[in-house]
Design a protein that fits this description.
The complex is a heterodimer of chains A (about 325) and B (about 325). Chain A has about 325 residues and is of the alpha/beta class. Chain A is built from twelve helices and ten strands. In chain A, strands 6-7-8-3-9-10 form a six-stranded mixed sheet, with helices on both faces. Chain A has a four-stranded antiparallel sheet with strand order 2-1-4-5. Chain A starts with 11 loop residues before the first helix and ends in a 27-residue tail after the last helix. Chain B is mainly α. Classes of the chains: A alpha/beta (about 325), B mainly alpha (about 325). At the A-B interface, α4, α5, α6 and α8 of A face α8, α9, α10, α11 and α16 of B.
Chain lengths: ~325, ~325
Amino acid sequence: MPADTSPTPATGATSMSASTPSSPATGSTGTTRSVADQGRADLQGLATEPGVKKKDPIVVATDVRRTFGGLTAVDVEHVEIQRGVITALIGPNGAGKTTFFNLLTGFDQPDSGSWTFNGTSLKGKSAYKVARLGMVRTFQLTKVLSKLTVLENMRMGATGQRGERFWAGALPFLWKSQEQEITARARELLGRFKLDAKESDFAGSLSGGQRKLLEMARALMVGPELVMLDEPMAGVNPALKQSLLGHVKSLREEGMSVLFVEHDMDMVRDISDWVIVMAQGKVIAEGPPRSIMTDQRVIDAYLGAHHDTDISELEHVVTAEHQQPKEETA
Amino acid sequence: MIDAFTGALHDGFGYVAISYCLAAIGLNIQFGYSGLLNFGQAAFLAIGGYIMGAAIATSGIPTIPAMLIAILFAVALALILGVPTLRLRADYLAIVTIAAAEILRLVFGTSFREYFRGKDGVTGFADGFRGLNPLPEYDGFFLTYSRNELWTIIVGWIVVILICVLVWALMRSPWGRVLRGIREDEDAVRSLGKNVYGYKMQALVLGGVIGCIGGFIGAFGAASVQADTFNLDFTFIALTMLILGGAARVLGPVVGAILFWAVLSFLGSILSDLSANPTVAQFMNADQASNVRLMLVGLVLMLLMIYRPQGIFGDRKEIALDAR
């Protein structure tokens, strides 16, 4: 597990040990449950209403508002994100999902509101500090460092590097050994993401899907506790989609929490434990994926009445949000 | 023709070339590696020459402390320029540096006359440096450098080599990797927990201090400092040298500076010889010859940008100046 070797205190491993004893009521099996099982158990029987309190939230946001001129992009009254599970954030285009992502991760500052990560207030914290705390994001439009090699992209992710300080940089003996550890960790992750053959290519030469993989792998180098993926499936071919899905699930099994924005309803149904629906800047519904898909508010605001109908039976693609055709696996 | 070659070598390795070379190395750290557009590098060289010169000539401070004072001023200038602009888009730094360079040039040329001597410029500070000259008296046969010029040049190239080693060591370190990452996409680097603002500031300060050292060499070589030396052309010529040699390459700015001065000098000699010919003089007199020289240099640079946008040493895949 990559988070183990990270020098930052905030890792998946510490969250595992910290969160398990904090909610002993559900630990009825006697043996220590994994964070993922614990998280899923915590979600059982929760009311499916917007802003519902979670048993063990990793992120809590209250009254977060962001306006651009006259337009209110985000106006979230209260939302909590459960630790150890995969939470999907869905909603129509312009619902404020990405803006909310930017606000949570410090890439944008809201007009008002408060939000915490692991109990630490993130108000006014710059993006790099948020990342160091263990909340790491990817971007809707992939941001690989094109003119650095794939391996350099990965190494860049490691935090607490001694050689990243100016004076130490010129003295290789101070950072060489750490660099080797980082490289070993990077190679292991690249192997998992099937990018090891590309390690010395410039990242700019990768395909769109490979860039998504690299961005996710690079985010893991930071040793995150919460991984925030902004449309991880956009522009990814079906074969790669399957492997991306597997990678996202494995994050959960390793004790990390995941929050992702996605328009691909199959993915949302397939991997998420909880779904938060946004429309016009507000959280309009929350709940487990099965029940959220039948929620009338969600169908009205986002999915449309024919969202479950096979595409060939429709004259118009009601739910089309993507350029690429939607494949029905069900 | 022999004179033209000697002149080309004389200028290509002369103290003016060294001073431009250090300016270009500083710009390489800022622009080549970090993507920062500093259009006011001349200001850092002006600070090097003027603050050091005035500290020695007017205040009687010894040479080495005077240099340290000048470096402190250069650091302060970099901070003043960087604090308000480095959080903003890249163009803001460009605008602010270009304006600051012009302001400083005017201040040095017209204000604080008891220190900076107005139009005359600062003189009488080079004796300490020249007093250290261990070279024997000689007749200036080597590329027609005078004894003091040769001393400045030897010291200057040693400084260039040391700074190149420093840049090479820094740019292969994780620190340099972060800078190159910032050049590509600073939001991505920020999302990985790096203090982008701090790194940009370090790059701006380091590049400025190297420029300031270039100012020392230029001042010692000429034994005087003139404000008009540090006009806007100065920075743009240094940037030209950087792109000519290849940005984001340790030796790019060095080769660029040598070549630029050598070619400029060579073309100058050839064209001025030509203009002495009465037939040619009908089309091009001696004054026009020096302008034709610049036209030809411009033409060569255009061809370079078309056929080799990465410069002489640059890696096309890494740093080609593409219009995205």
